């Protein structure tokens, strides 16, 4: 129940943020961005991954040590526009029981992040975009 309530709290926070954006700021559970002089969004806190166009933050809502966490929040922010998506997903394992990556879905798209730091965006069974991610430490 704790995981579910945390997930609802995050979604509620995002809803409030989307209704109360002011002074070019967006605040999302652990991520705060603002427009800089070049009209690009910059983070106040680092996320999990970064690409040329995106900042991605994964927030696991499972006990530490869980190999295949089935309650992970995916937050992706477009660096140029500041638009974002928030999805709930889960980790998935390979045949030996090791973590292979994470999968997040909305009504139309599937976002899969593999341990080799690639994001695959699919529509149906077709991969429409592959993005190389850099891990942020």
Structural class: mainly beta
Task: Give the overall form.
Answer: globular
Residue-averaged pLDDT: 74
**Poorly predicted ranges (pLDDT <50, ≥5 residues)?**
1-37
Major sheet summary line:
9 strands, antiparallel
Number of strands: 12
The residue fraction in helices comes out at 10-25%
Molecular structure report:
The protein is mainly beta. The protein is globular and about 35 Å long. The longest helix is centred in the first third of the chain and has 18 residues, at 2-19. The protein has one helix at 2-19, and strands at 25-28, 31-35, 41-43, 49-50, 54-60, 72-78, 84-93, 99-105, 109-114, 118-123, 126-132, 134-135. A hairpin with a 5-residue loop joins strand 2 and strand 3 (41-43). Helix content is 13%, strand content 48%.
